[in-house]
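Case study: Fructosamine kinase.
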Amino acid sequence: MPGTGTTARTTDADGRDVFTKTLAGAPPLFFEREAVGLRALAAAGARVPEVLDVAADHLTLAWVETGHGRTAQTEERFGQELAELHRSTAQESRGAPYGSVDGEATGYLGACPVDLTPTATWQESWVERRVVPLARRAVDEGQLDRATAALAEQITPDRLGPAEPPTLVHGDLWGGNRMVDTRGRNWMVDPCAHLGHREVDLAMMQLFGGFSGRVFAAYAEVHPLADGWRERVAVYQTVPLLVHAILFGGGYGVQAGEALREATR
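Here is what the predicted structure looks like once written out:
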Protein backbone atom coordinates (compact mmCIF):
# COMPACT_ATOMS: atom_id res chain seq x y z
CA MET A 1 0.00 0.00 0.00
CA PRO A 2 1.22 3.58 -0.65
CA GLY A 3 2.25 5.88 2.11
CA THR A 4 0.02 8.34 3.94
CA GLY A 5 -1.11 11.22 1.76
CA THR A 6 -1.28 14.89 2.66
CA THR A 7 -3.50 17.76 1.56
CA ALA A 8 -2.89 21.48 1.66
CA ARG A 9 -4.51 24.74 0.64
CA THR A 10 -1.99 27.10 -0.91
CA THR A 11 -1.72 29.95 -3.42
CA ASP A 12 -0.18 29.32 -6.83
CA ALA A 13 2.03 31.59 -8.92
CA ASP A 14 -1.03 33.28 -10.43
CA GLY A 15 -2.44 34.13 -7.02
CA ARG A 16 -5.20 31.53 -7.13
CA ASP A 17 -6.20 29.52 -4.11
CA VAL A 18 -5.52 25.87 -4.85
CA PHE A 19 -5.88 22.52 -3.15
CA THR A 20 -3.07 20.00 -3.56
CA LYS A 21 -3.12 16.32 -2.65
CA THR A 22 0.20 14.50 -2.44
CA LEU A 23 1.05 10.86 -1.87
CA ALA A 24 4.60 9.56 -1.71
CA GLY A 25 4.90 6.24 -3.48
CA ALA A 26 1.48 6.57 -5.08
CA PRO A 27 0.52 3.51 -7.15
CA PRO A 28 0.67 3.76 -10.95
CA LEU A 29 -1.66 6.38 -12.45
CA PHE A 30 -3.25 7.08 -9.06
CA PHE A 31 -3.66 10.84 -9.46
CA GLU A 32 -3.82 10.72 -13.25
CA ARG A 33 -6.96 8.58 -13.15
CA GLU A 34 -8.64 10.93 -10.69
CA ALA A 35 -7.84 13.83 -13.00
CA VAL A 36 -9.30 11.96 -16.00
CA GLY A 37 -12.47 11.33 -14.04
CA LEU A 38 -12.83 14.95 -12.96
CA ARG A 39 -12.33 16.18 -16.51
CA ALA A 40 -14.86 13.67 -17.87
CA LEU A 41 -17.45 14.81 -15.33
CA ALA A 42 -16.74 18.47 -16.10
CA ALA A 43 -17.09 17.87 -19.83
CA ALA A 44 -20.48 16.26 -19.17
CA GLY A 45 -21.68 19.34 -17.28
CA ALA A 46 -21.07 18.29 -13.68
CA ARG A 47 -19.72 20.84 -11.20
CA VAL A 48 -16.28 19.65 -10.10
CA PRO A 49 -13.05 21.48 -9.19
CA GLU A 50 -10.86 22.40 -12.14
CA VAL A 51 -7.74 20.27 -12.55
CA LEU A 52 -4.74 22.61 -12.59
CA ASP A 53 -1.83 20.18 -12.38
CA VAL A 54 -1.35 16.45 -12.12
CA ALA A 55 1.72 14.26 -11.76
CA ALA A 56 2.61 10.84 -10.40
CA ASP A 57 2.78 12.08 -6.81
CA HIS A 58 0.28 14.93 -6.65
CA LEU A 59 -2.92 16.52 -7.94
CA THR A 60 -3.66 20.25 -7.75
CA LEU A 61 -7.21 21.54 -8.05
CA ALA A 62 -8.86 24.94 -7.97
CA TRP A 63 -10.03 25.71 -4.44
CA VAL A 64 -13.77 25.51 -3.73
CA GLU A 65 -14.92 27.52 -0.73
CA THR A 66 -17.49 25.56 1.24
CA GLY A 67 -19.72 26.73 4.04
CA HIS A 68 -23.33 26.90 2.89
CA GLY A 69 -25.53 24.52 4.86
CA ARG A 70 -27.49 21.83 3.07
CA THR A 71 -31.11 22.88 2.63
CA ALA A 72 -34.18 21.52 0.91
CA GLN A 73 -33.17 23.59 -2.11
CA THR A 74 -29.58 22.34 -2.29
CA GLU A 75 -30.82 18.75 -1.88
CA GLU A 76 -33.38 19.08 -4.65
CA ARG A 77 -30.88 20.72 -6.97
CA PHE A 78 -28.34 18.00 -6.36
CA GLY A 79 -30.89 15.30 -7.20
CA GLN A 80 -31.88 17.14 -10.37
CA GLU A 81 -28.28 17.76 -11.44
CA LEU A 82 -27.24 14.15 -10.87
CA ALA A 83 -30.28 12.89 -12.79
CA GLU A 84 -29.50 15.17 -15.71
CA LEU A 85 -25.86 14.03 -15.72
CA HIS A 86 -26.95 10.39 -15.86
CA ARG A 87 -29.68 10.99 -18.44
CA SER A 88 -27.63 13.09 -20.83
CA THR A 89 -24.55 10.87 -20.76
CA ALA A 90 -26.65 7.73 -21.33
CA GLN A 91 -28.15 9.35 -24.41
CA GLU A 92 -24.68 10.19 -25.72
CA SER A 93 -23.01 6.85 -24.94
CA ARG A 94 -25.36 4.38 -26.61
CA GLY A 95 -23.21 1.63 -28.08
CA ALA A 96 -20.16 2.57 -25.99
CA PRO A 97 -18.45 -0.03 -23.77
CA TYR A 98 -18.85 -0.13 -20.01
CA GLY A 99 -15.88 0.71 -17.83
CA SER A 100 -13.14 3.28 -18.34
CA VAL A 101 -14.02 6.62 -19.93
CA ASP A 102 -10.89 6.58 -22.09
CA GLY A 103 -9.88 2.95 -22.54
CA GLU A 104 -7.35 2.78 -19.69
CA ALA A 105 -8.19 -0.18 -17.46
CA THR A 106 -6.61 1.22 -14.28
CA GLY A 107 -9.00 2.63 -11.72
CA TYR A 108 -9.01 3.31 -7.99
CA LEU A 109 -11.86 3.31 -5.51
CA GLY A 110 -10.23 5.16 -2.67
CA ALA A 111 -6.78 3.59 -2.47
CA CYS A 112 -7.94 0.22 -3.79
CA PRO A 113 -7.29 -0.67 -7.44
CA VAL A 114 -10.33 -1.69 -9.46
CA ASP A 115 -10.49 -3.06 -12.99
CA LEU A 116 -12.21 -0.68 -15.42
CA THR A 117 -11.29 -2.54 -18.59
CA PRO A 118 -13.87 -1.60 -21.26
CA THR A 119 -16.39 -4.42 -21.74
CA ALA A 120 -19.39 -5.07 -23.95
CA THR A 121 -21.66 -6.03 -21.04
CA TRP A 122 -22.40 -4.56 -17.66
CA GLN A 123 -22.31 -8.04 -16.12
CA GLU A 124 -18.68 -8.44 -17.09
CA SER A 125 -17.73 -4.95 -15.97
CA TRP A 126 -19.42 -4.98 -12.57
CA VAL A 127 -19.42 -8.64 -11.55
CA GLU A 128 -16.59 -10.40 -13.38
CA ARG A 129 -14.03 -7.59 -13.25
CA ARG A 130 -14.89 -6.04 -9.90
CA VAL A 131 -17.12 -7.99 -7.51
CA VAL A 132 -15.50 -11.40 -8.05
CA PRO A 133 -11.83 -10.28 -7.91
CA LEU A 134 -12.49 -8.04 -4.89
CA ALA A 135 -14.28 -10.86 -3.05
CA ARG A 136 -11.29 -13.14 -3.68
CA ARG A 137 -8.90 -10.46 -2.44
CA ALA A 138 -11.03 -10.01 0.69
CA VAL A 139 -10.55 -13.74 1.34
CA ASP A 140 -6.79 -13.36 0.93
CA GLU A 141 -6.86 -10.44 3.38
CA GLY A 142 -8.74 -12.53 5.93
CA GLN A 143 -11.87 -10.38 5.73
CA LEU A 144 -14.25 -12.84 4.04
CA ASP A 145 -14.68 -16.60 4.11
CA ARG A 146 -14.41 -18.54 0.86
CA ALA A 147 -18.01 -19.78 0.86
CA THR A 148 -19.34 -16.23 1.13
CA ALA A 149 -16.90 -14.94 -1.46
CA ALA A 150 -18.07 -17.64 -3.88
CA LEU A 151 -21.51 -15.99 -3.89
CA ALA A 152 -20.02 -13.25 -6.06
CA GLU A 153 -19.89 -15.68 -8.95
CA GLN A 154 -23.64 -16.31 -8.58
CA ILE A 155 -24.66 -12.72 -9.36
CA THR A 156 -26.54 -13.05 -12.63
CA PRO A 157 -27.38 -10.28 -15.13
CA ASP A 158 -31.00 -10.08 -13.97
CA ARG A 159 -29.75 -9.04 -10.52
CA LEU A 160 -28.30 -5.88 -12.07
CA GLY A 161 -31.64 -4.59 -13.32
CA PRO A 162 -33.01 -3.86 -16.78
CA ALA A 163 -30.43 -3.11 -19.43
CA GLU A 164 -29.58 0.57 -19.78
CA PRO A 165 -27.02 2.38 -21.93
CA PRO A 166 -23.72 3.13 -20.19
CA THR A 167 -23.99 6.20 -17.97
CA LEU A 168 -21.16 8.38 -16.72
CA VAL A 169 -21.18 7.82 -12.96
CA HIS A 170 -19.15 9.47 -10.23
CA GLY A 171 -18.39 6.01 -8.89
CA ASP A 172 -17.62 6.93 -5.25
CA LEU A 173 -20.51 9.19 -4.36
CA TRP A 174 -20.67 9.03 -0.58
CA GLY A 175 -21.62 12.10 1.43
CA GLY A 176 -18.03 13.25 1.93
CA ASN A 177 -17.47 13.53 -1.82
CA ARG A 178 -20.26 16.06 -2.28
CA MET A 179 -19.73 19.66 -1.17
CA VAL A 180 -21.94 22.73 -1.00
CA ASP A 181 -20.18 26.04 -1.63
CA THR A 182 -20.87 29.45 -0.09
CA ARG A 183 -23.42 30.17 -2.84
CA GLY A 184 -25.39 27.01 -2.21
CA ARG A 185 -24.08 25.20 -5.29
CA ASN A 186 -23.33 21.48 -5.22
CA TRP A 187 -19.92 20.10 -6.16
CA MET A 188 -18.56 16.56 -6.53
CA VAL A 189 -14.97 15.54 -5.71
CA ASP A 190 -12.76 12.43 -5.55
CA PRO A 191 -14.46 10.37 -8.26
CA CYS A 192 -13.89 6.87 -9.55
CA ALA A 193 -15.65 7.98 -12.72
CA HIS A 194 -16.55 5.38 -15.33
CA LEU A 195 -19.28 4.34 -17.73
CA GLY A 196 -21.62 2.08 -15.82
CA HIS A 197 -25.11 1.78 -14.37
CA ARG A 198 -26.58 4.86 -12.70
CA GLU A 199 -27.74 2.82 -9.72
CA VAL A 200 -24.05 2.56 -8.72
CA ASP A 201 -24.19 6.20 -7.60
CA LEU A 202 -27.59 5.91 -5.96
CA ALA A 203 -26.55 2.85 -3.95
CA MET A 204 -23.33 4.47 -2.79
CA MET A 205 -25.27 7.55 -1.68
CA GLN A 206 -27.27 5.30 0.67
CA LEU A 207 -24.31 3.45 2.15
CA PHE A 208 -22.99 6.04 4.62
CA GLY A 209 -25.79 8.62 4.65
CA GLY A 210 -25.42 12.32 3.91
CA PHE A 211 -28.22 12.61 1.34
CA SER A 212 -31.82 13.35 2.26
CA GLY A 213 -34.91 11.82 0.75
CA ARG A 214 -35.39 15.05 -1.21
CA VAL A 215 -32.35 14.18 -3.31
CA PHE A 216 -33.82 10.85 -4.43
CA ALA A 217 -37.29 12.28 -4.99
CA ALA A 218 -35.92 15.10 -7.14
CA TYR A 219 -33.76 12.61 -9.06
CA ALA A 220 -36.75 10.40 -9.84
CA GLU A 221 -38.78 13.34 -11.12
CA VAL A 222 -36.13 14.14 -13.72
CA HIS A 223 -34.97 10.61 -14.57
CA PRO A 224 -37.32 7.90 -13.22
CA LEU A 225 -35.72 4.70 -11.99
CA ALA A 226 -36.59 1.21 -13.18
CA ASP A 227 -38.86 -0.92 -11.00
CA GLY A 228 -37.05 -2.79 -8.25
CA TRP A 229 -34.16 -0.36 -7.88
CA ARG A 230 -34.41 -0.45 -4.08
CA GLU A 231 -33.99 -4.23 -4.14
CA ARG A 232 -30.81 -3.79 -6.17
CA VAL A 233 -29.11 -1.49 -3.67
CA ALA A 234 -27.28 -4.45 -2.11
CA VAL A 235 -25.72 -5.65 -5.36
CA TYR A 236 -24.46 -2.13 -6.06
CA GLN A 237 -23.03 -1.79 -2.56
CA THR A 238 -20.95 -4.96 -2.86
CA VAL A 239 -17.98 -3.24 -4.49
CA PRO A 240 -17.57 -0.35 -2.02
CA LEU A 241 -18.13 -2.68 0.93
CA LEU A 242 -15.55 -5.16 -0.34
CA VAL A 243 -13.11 -2.30 -0.88
CA HIS A 244 -13.70 -1.08 2.68
CA ALA A 245 -13.19 -4.61 4.00
CA ILE A 246 -9.88 -4.85 2.13
CA LEU A 247 -8.64 -1.42 3.17
CA PHE A 248 -10.01 -1.08 6.70
CA GLY A 249 -11.15 -4.49 7.93
CA GLY A 250 -13.32 -4.31 11.02
CA GLY A 251 -17.01 -4.89 10.44
CA TYR A 252 -16.87 -4.15 6.73
CA GLY A 253 -16.21 -7.80 5.91
CA VAL A 254 -19.45 -8.74 7.66
CA GLN A 255 -21.34 -6.04 5.78
CA ALA A 256 -19.82 -7.13 2.48
CA GLY A 257 -20.90 -10.70 3.17
CA GLU A 258 -24.43 -9.55 3.96
CA ALA A 259 -24.56 -7.58 0.71
CA LEU A 260 -23.38 -10.62 -1.28
CA ARG A 261 -26.02 -12.80 0.33
CA GLU A 262 -28.74 -10.23 -0.35
CA ALA A 263 -27.56 -9.82 -3.95
CA THR A 264 -27.92 -13.55 -4.60
CA ARG A 265 -31.00 -14.32 -2.48
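For the exam, be able to explain this: The mean pLDDT is 95.
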